[in-house]
Amino acid sequence: MLFPPDFLTRLEYLSIMSKRVFRGQLMAQRRTMQTGSGIEFSEHREYTSGDDLRYMDWNIYARHGDLLLKRFQEEQDLHVYLMLDSSRSMAFGQPSKFDLARQVAAALAYVALADLDRIGIVMCADGMVQEFPVTRGKDRILSVMQFLERLETTGSDTNLTQSVQEFLHRNPRPGLAVVLSDLFDPRGFQSALDQLRYRRFELHVIQLYAPAEANPGLLGDAELVDMETGVSRRVTVTERNLENYRQLFLQHQQSVRDYCRRHNAGCQQSSTEIRFDELILSMMRASAAVM
Amino acid sequence: MTFGLPAALMLAVIALPITVFYILRVRLRRVPVSTGLFWSQVFDEKPPRSLWQSFRHLTSWLAQMLILLTLVLAAADPLLKSSLREAERLVIVIDNSASMAVTAGSTTRLELGRSAAKTLVHGLRHQDEAAVVVANTGTRIVTGMTDHAASLLRAIDSVKIADTGTSLKAAIELGQRLIGDNRRGRIVVVTDGCVCASSTADAAAADSPATPVAEPIPEDSQVATMEKLEPSEAAGGLANQSRVQVEFLRVGEATGNVGITAFQVRRSLVDPVGYEILASVRNASSVGVSCQLELSLNGLPIDVIPMTLKADEQWTRSLPKLSAEGGQLRAELVEIRSDGPEGVAGVEQSGSVDGLLTDNSGWAILSPATKQKVFLVTPGNLFVQKVFEANPLVQLTVVNALPAASDWPAGSVIVLHELVPERLPAGNLVVLDPATGCDAWTIGATIENPVIALQKETSPLMKNIQLDNVLIPEAKQITFREQTESLVETVDGESLCSLWKRKNGDCVVVPVALQSSDLAFRTVFPILMSNILNWYAGESSEGRLTLAAGANATVSLRLPMVERAAVDTAAAVSRFFLTAPNGERAAISATAQPADAGDSASDMVTLLTGPLQQVGIWSVSEAEMQGSRPLKPAVKTLEEFAVNLANGCETNLRPTAEFDLPDKSPGGIAGLVSRPIWFYLILTACAFLAAEWALYHRRWIS
Q1: What CATH number is attached to the domain comprising A99?
Q2: pLDDT value at position B132?
Q3: How many CB atoms within 10 Å of residue B606?
Q4: B534-569, pLDDT tens digit by residue?
């Protein structure tokens, strides 16, 4: 069962923990640089025809006779986009990476909704597969969970760049983009993440991997079948091959970390052996990713 | 070639499922991977599958087929036609004599022999049978013919060192009886080659006790026992007479040794409180040695004899000593040193001049000299009187007339010279030249010049006596009313010395006229009187037995009639105990000794003990009984006897050149070459298995 009965209880716990950890930094209370209809005074400007007279500073006018308009700093909700990799490679592992990714997505969505932020969920595979529209309100969590529960891995390849491009074509409002993926994109993951950064999305990467991917217990003759493409390869795996594989995998992990550090993006790499709530908490403590 | 179990060839059908499973297994596992991203990079460096990798699978299948083939053939037990004729019956004769205790390196010769025998057992084929026989002086079947290898191995392990000589001939004969008429019988003798012809020849009669030495052994008498037995001689030509093949497997290397080859003691024939020790020491090495022979009586040293012996020199001495008391006499060789250049101990490979400890000690039992009361009734004969007076162990009372019937002394040996009462008194009697008859005999005619034709030499009364050249004129013809044992007979069958075993005491009658005979002038007369007194004292003239190791001992006890009746009951089985030198005690059975012919009143009880396979002092004890149960550990020692190795052939630890056989290591006869075919097939299968194992690990390591 993807969402066990106590799942919501754990989410609530995570929400409380997030408030403790990030006191005073809740998402919905972030002040933007825009001035608008907030209550926090920002500056004065001269009155021009057509301005709302409600914001006229009558005290200044009474003292000095100047028509000045009061301006306030606007508070607006944060948009959190959960970009969930639903390629077939995410079905690997026991439990599968996709299950953990959906649980993590549900948890992040709950925390965000509880903080009055807006969340949107985007499914990525060889393109943008499906989307949960941007929504807000804690009462939407059930809809989110139902949406996640219905999802299945799909596609014939992992193409994050294509998926991000399709997502950006919808002209989303910049916000926090959380990418939940194994990042096994033959074309490279950097291009997709770069595009998000270029559109002023605050980036956070959660890379999931199965233990069998890090250390495959595979030796001898075997026919390797790529879960995404279905391409098979008859090989004889020796210890040397295995060691090479491990080296390549570690290099890939390291490249993800390097990218995130270089671009000041949040990064969390986790095995599927860890529980989703532990992952969220460690993520919160390590990098304050839910900001 | 044929097969002992051809039905096992049916197992070859297993090849089908193996092939099927092999094909199924060779079909590669489909392993889903989340991405081929990394695997592509790994395997892009070289071609995914080489020709060898494909061929390797075929090699593996061939290896598996060969494993199956060899195992099936092994199960079918292939037999060569030469070995098909009949199953082999093997008798393994293991020499466990004293010389096998010699240590060769870190192991004894016996251990080497055991491992050689085990190799033979391991080489047995299907249906072959083997038996294990030990070849000490008490040849014994350890386990009979069996094809159960575990039993044979256990039997071989159970063979222990016996401090005895070797009896290869008897063991080979026993092995031949075990093999019977089997045409494929084989006897393998595992020995160190330290055997001699006389010991093997005498071994068949090993159940008889060693005869105490009657006279000092001449120095060259040991030479006979030193002669080494050749292998052909050990087989006694039996191999030629039968189809049995006798092989000799020698273990151990030649080593030097110095040992006591003879150690006996006896009371002096001329001095009643004296005794004579016969000791013989042999240097059985190729260098000279010096050593000391320490003699002690009851733990108290009585003599220390230093000696220097040349190579292969025999030292033999008769040592007169004085002691009225008896006890345990012990000889021990100490301070044995090589006189050769330092570090050179002769040609022996072990480099030792004293390889065997067993023969460094000798034991003997010296009987105490006890005084006897003698009541001499004689009208007057100085020779008769002086014979007893000269014996310091005799307390003599002389009377010149017959006492009244009630005045006969009790507990004394009564000697009647010429004077004989009408009714013989009770007790032990010696009657010399009886003038008249009595209730036991009548006097007949005089034998003018008797010619002695028969002398019963086996009787202890006639020990060391030779009457052939003694003139005995005017002897008396005596007719006994009851049956007697004639010790000396004339040509006419008349007895000149008779032993009459009465219910109330024995009686020795010598109807020789001492006045006219020269018997009283000869040394045989005091010896005869001494023998008679010793007989009545219950001791032989030489003292107690000193036995050769491995012999059986028969202990005769003179018990009261009431006790003898108890001996006949079953409870008597646990009444008598035999205690070995190492303290081990075992119950022995006692039987009433069959009385001599016509004498139903024997009060002798016979205890048969042995074989006595340890050197040292053995003792027969009697437990104090509580009802029908012995009261342990309260025991009363009844008899002691000494057991010595005293075997020159065992002392000589150098096998003869004839036994210097080609180096047949334990694996030489029944090693790898002689193993059955199935053994090699199994080995081949193991080799194929190892190859397949390597191939398997190349493919399926995890």
Answers
A1: 3.40.50.410
A2: 93
A3: 16
A4: 888 765 555 666 888 877 777 766 665 445 555 555
> H or E element: which one contains B68?
helix B51-75
| A65: in domain | yes
Examine the domain organization and report whether A85 and A60 are in the same domain.
Answer: no
Q: Whose CA is closest to B575, among B617, B639, B635?
A: B635
- DSSP secondary structure string, B473-525? TTEEEEEESS--EEEEEETTS-EEEEEEEETTEEEEEE---TTTSSGGGSTHH
- CA distance, residue B22 to nearest chain A CA (Å): 14
Q: Scan for tokens 């969505």, then name that residue.
A: A109
Q: What whole-number distance in Å separates Cα of residue B157 and Cα of residue B94? A: 11
Cβ-defined contact of B39 to A245 (cutoff 8 Å): yes
Determine the 3-state secondary structure of B61 from DSSP.
helix
How does pLDDT run across B381-415, given as a tens digit for each residue?
A: 888 899 888 888 888 999 998 998 888 898 889 99
Q: What pLDDT is recorded for position B293?
A: 92
Query: Whole domain around residue A42: which residue ranges?
Result: 31-75
B55 C-beta neighbours (distance < 10 Å), count: 10
CA–CA distance from B71 to each of A192, B81, B316, B637, B686 (Å)? Answer: 64, 21, 66, 65, 9
A176 Cβ partners below 8 Å, 6+ apart? A78, A79, A80, A81, A201, A202, A204, A291
Surface of A (216-245) touching B: CB under 8 A: 216-229, 231-236, 239, 241, 244-245
Tell me which of A206-210, A270-274, B231-235, B415-419 is least confident. Answer: B231-235
Least confident of A13-17, B163-167, B463-467, B496-500: A13-17
CB of A115 closer than 8 Å to CB of A26: yes
On whether residue A24 sits in a domain, the answer given is no
The predicted-structure confidence for B118-145, as pLDDT tens digits, reads as follows: 988 887 876 788 999 988 877 889 989 9
How many domains does one find in chain A? 2
Residue A256 predicted with pLDDT over 90: yes
* Residue A138 within any structural domain of the chain: yes
By Cβ distance, the residue of A158, A222, A241 closest to B29 is A222
* Kind and range of the H or E run holding A121: strand A118-124
Residue A192 sits in the same domain as residue A170 = yes
Domains of chain B: 2-77+694-699 (no CATH), 86-193+228-254+655-675 (3.40.50.410), 258-366 (2.60.40.10), 372-537 (3.40.50.880), 550-644 (2.60.40.10)
Q: Determine, for residues B33 and A92 on separate chains, whether the beta-carbon distance falls below 8 Å.
A: yes
Residues A90, A164 within the same domain = yes
Question: Which band of pLDDT confidence, cut at 50, 70 and 90, is reported for residue B222?
Answer: very low
Q: Is A227 close to B32, i.e. CB distance below 8 A?
A: yes
Portion 89-128 of A in contact with B at CB < 8 A: 89-90, 92-93, 97
| Angstrom distance (rounded) from CA B193 to CA B112 | 13
Nearest to B30 among A223, A245, A252 (CB): A223
| A58 & A85 share domain | no
Spell out which residues of chain B touch residue A184, defining contact as CB-CB under 8 Å.
34-35, 37
- Whether B206 has a pLDDT exceeding 60, the answer reads no
Looking at the fold, whether A238 and A115 belong to one and the same domain comes out as yes
pLDDT tens per residue across span A214-249: 998 888 778 889 988 888 888 878 888 889 999 999
Q: Does A66 touch chain B (CB under 8 A)?
A: no
Return the higher-pLDDT residue of B538 and A201.
A201
- Asked if B36 and A226 come within 8 Å (Cβ–Cβ), the reply is yes
List the helix and strand counts (H, then E) for chain A.
9, 11
Beta-carbon pairs below 8 A across chains A and B: 97
Same domain, A67 and A87: no
Write out pLDDT tens, residues B106-121: 788 899 999 989 988 8
Residue % of chain B over a pLDDT of 90:
15
> Does A264 lie in the same domain as A196?
yes
